[in-house]
Design a protein that fits this description.
heterodimer; A: alpha+beta; 42% helix; B: alpha/beta; five-stranded mixed β-sheet; four-stranded parallel β-sheet
């Protein structure tokens, strides 16, 4: 097929077949396959469209019709990092507009444009489900919470200098656009255990409730079920909590899985 | 039955545990007790338990979850599907994403119980593509669940088999609409389908399908462990149980607060340190941008489905976006309308054209260049969208406009002579000082053409 050499084509086809096998009907594989194409070419290339069409027995027009519907599929080569500034209402008002103005002026580019060095593609993005961390910036769809114009400019300068940047909630460092696209195609990169479980805003209610001794009602577990039911979600230190349960799995005794709430109790 | 406390963390109870996202941590806090309980029951009894709990959909519409499951036709030997809607995109809504980041196993366990209840052998989690690390965590959670025998064949020796596929979207708000989500999952453009038939009858691949929100599904393990009465001991009679309330914006301590339904914004604001110091509440959304805005007069409205509805809005996703007196309501509504215009899928004319034109009108009002007829024009356009659009996106697009005009008409009238950024300098609303570079919008000059 035009566009890919033999080795690349064989590799992409093998990956695509693996994606197709996840679904009862082959066409469901199209969205992840388009992510796969972006992991190879950095955008939805004509060669990639042709590949998807051939493997799914669609026309290239049918594939293009889908690709152009979704904002994450890029119609021209993307920069190594997509930097998205949330300018939906809440983030905009909390400072997202200021971040956008500063960053756009600093880089000299607008929405969906890429710096000359190919490092950064700038986007105005819609709500990314992190409003309690506004204003929010996403770099290759990793969370950069509570941003300012200065912090965001610093981030893009590091990216352009080839230095690693770390999201507030995400992997230890931001990966490239192509690496990200491969994950979105459903191929794990082994980084799920990196980073925090939650940021400070996420656990505000959890921590406050514990401080004040508030909790949901205890589970009323019948005695003969108690051992099997394993406790559900009781307060730490209360009956049925992990502290009360006899060890039944390696996790119960392994120091590596101690939790912060265990330390408190 | 215990008296409930102001906050009642269930789903969020252990989000701050070290490595909270791992199966080991989840099990150490009682995880998978609900699944064991469920597998000891007949699937129909699992459905009954969830029906009796009064759990209503946590994705916005509030439809009773157990009843939705009960709508599936009798088994005919063919496949039946569970599709979890993890496409959280409603402006202001930020609960499912931290849930899946901190505790993905809660969603996996809930998905297994639900699949067992409805006779599903392959479930799908459709997660938006713009939350990379959440997708990583979900893939890993599924891997861990397979390794532990919670997924695959003969789950926990029950003879029940289930596979879960985690599917990443690619950026489209409309895919949060359940039938658009199904089209997208089938590899099509994400456009809504005509209903009926409803997904329960003809959903994914035209087979019986349950589509549920992440938080709804993550609530199921607790209901199975604690029982329907335990769940009902929280909340109100018709709005039972616990829910995540997400405070954002001009509030001292924004974040997730899990409370019994029926809590008020006044109570939540008190827990969150109040509106930012030196300022006062101007307007807020009870459930995301598609729910009509409220003002300070609604501080004591119980945040349950019925009370919020009676007060003229919708509980939605409990996305409480707080705006203080520095905020231009015209600016806020214009931006939301730009969002709806951007995200309209284009399938139906009222939404596609209506959102486009409302955006033009609002932009000139924001720029102080509106005409005296513009408010009526907006209301007339809203009237021609509401109830006439193919799906709820169009209806949602009208909510901020009609409610904002209802409560703040004078600000829209001011849009005929004074730009919003003059009346409400944006640097007063932001969290940090700055000097706006743009004094207007590039597009403003063209909208009268």
């Amino acid at each position: 097929m035009a566009g890919y050499d033999e080795v690349t084509l064989a590799r992409l086809e093998a990956d695509a077949r693996e994606i197709i096998a996840r679904y009862p009907q082959a066409r469901s594989a199209l969205l992840p396959m388009l992510h796969l194409v972006q992991s190879e070419d950095g955008y939805v290339s004509p060669a990639g469209i042709a590949l998807c069409a051939r493997l799914l027995e669609l026309t290239t027009a049918e594939v293009s019709a889908v690709a152009t519907f979704y904002t994450q599929y890029k119609r021209h080569p993307n920069g190594e990092y997509t930097v998205g500034v949330c300018t939906n209402t809440l983030c905009a008002i909390m400072g997202g507009d200021a971040i956008w103005e500063e960053l756009s002026a600093h880089l000299g580019i607008g929405h969906d444009e890429t710096t000359d060095d190919g490092a950064v593609t700038l986007e105005r993005i819609e709500c990314n489900a992190a409003c309690d961390y506004a204003p929010v910036v996403m770099v290759n769809w990793e969370f950069f919470d509570n941003q300012t114009p200065a912090s965001t400019v610093e981030t893009v300068e590091r990216l352009r200098a080839g230095q690693p940047v770390s999201p507030t909630r995400g992997a230890d460092t931001v990966c490239s656009f192509r690496q990200m696209s491969r994950v979105l195609a459903g191929f794990p990169d082994g980084r799920a255990d990196e980073g925090v479980g939650a940021g400070p805003a996420t656990v505000r209610g959890t921590v406050l409730a514990r401080e004040r001794g508030w909790s949901a009602p205890e589970f009323d577990v019948p005695a003969d079920d108690a051992a099997d039911a394993g406790g559900g979600v009781p307060d730490d230190g209360q009956p049925q909590s992990s502290a009360e349960r006899p060890p039944t799995t390696p996790a119960d005794t392994s120091a590596a899985t101690k939790t912060s709430s265990d330390k408190e109790s | 039955m215990a008296a409930t406390t102001p906050l009642a963390p269930v789903i969020s109870a252990h989000w701050d545990a070290e490595r909270s996202w791992t199966l080991a941590t989840y099990e150490a806090h009682g995880g998978y007790a609900g699944l064991r309980r469920a597998l000891a029951l007949d699937p129909a009894d699992v459905v009954t338990t969830v029906k009796d709990s009064g759990l209503r959909g946590r994705g916005g519409a509030g439809f009773p979850t157990g009843m939705k499951w009960g709508f599936l036709p009798a088994p005919d030997g063919g496949p039946r599907y569970l599709v979890v809607n993890a496409d959280e995109s409603e402006p202001g809504t930020c609960k499912d994403t931290p849930l899946m980041m901190a505790s993905p196993q809660a969603l996996i366990e809930g998905s297994i119980i639900t699949s067992y209840a409805i006779g599903c052998r392959q479930a799908f989690i459709y997660v938006r593509g713009e939350i990379l690390h959440v997708y990583r965590r979900l893939l890993r959670a599924v891997e861990e669940a397979y390794a532990a025998g919670y997924l695959g064949t003969d789950i926990l020796g029950s003879g029940y088999d289930l596979d879960i596929t985690v599917h990443a979207g690619a950026g489209a708000y409309i895919c949060g609409e359940e039938t658009a989500l199904l089209d997208s999952l089938e590899g099509l453009r994400g456009q809504p389908r005509l209903k009926p038939p409803f997904p329960a009858v003809a959903g994914l691949y035209a087979r019986p399908t349950v589509v549920n929100n992440v938080e709804s599904i993550a609530s199921v393990p607790g209901i199975l462990t604690g029982g329907s009465d335990w769940f009902r001991s929280m909340g109100t009679e018709k709005s039972a149980g616990h829910g995540l309330f997400s405070l954002s914006g001009h509030v001292e301590r924004p974040g997730q607060y899990e409370a019994p339904l029926g809590v008020t914004l006044r109570e939540l604001l008190d827990l969150a340190g109040g509106v930012r110091t030196g300022h006062e509440l101007k307007f807020w959304t009870p459930g995301g941008s598609s729910t009509p805005i409220f003002t300070a007069e609604h501080l004591d409205v119980p945040l349950d489905y019925e009370s919020v509805g009676a007060a003229g809005s919708m509980l939605g996703t409990r996305a409480l976006q707080i705006f203080d007196e520095t905020t231009s309501v015209v600016r806020a509504v214009t931006r939301w309308t730009e969002f709806y215009a951007h995200e309209s899928c284009g399938k139906c004319t009222p939404c596609r054209e209506g959102t486009f034109w409302m955006k033009q009108v609002l932009r000139r009002l924001e720029a102080g260049q509106g005409t005296p007829q513009d408010i009526d024009l907006l209301l007339d356009t809203c009237e021609n969208i509401l109830g006439r659009a193919f799906c709820a996106l169009g209806d949602g697009a009208t909510s901020p406009i009609t409610s904002a005009i209802q409560y703040f008409r004078e600000e829209f009238e001011a849009g005929t002579h004074t730009p919003a950024w003059v009346l409400f300098p944006p640097e007063r609303s932001s969290l940090f000082p700055y000097t706006p570079r743009e004094t207007g919008r590039a597009l403003v000059g063209t909208v009268h053409a």
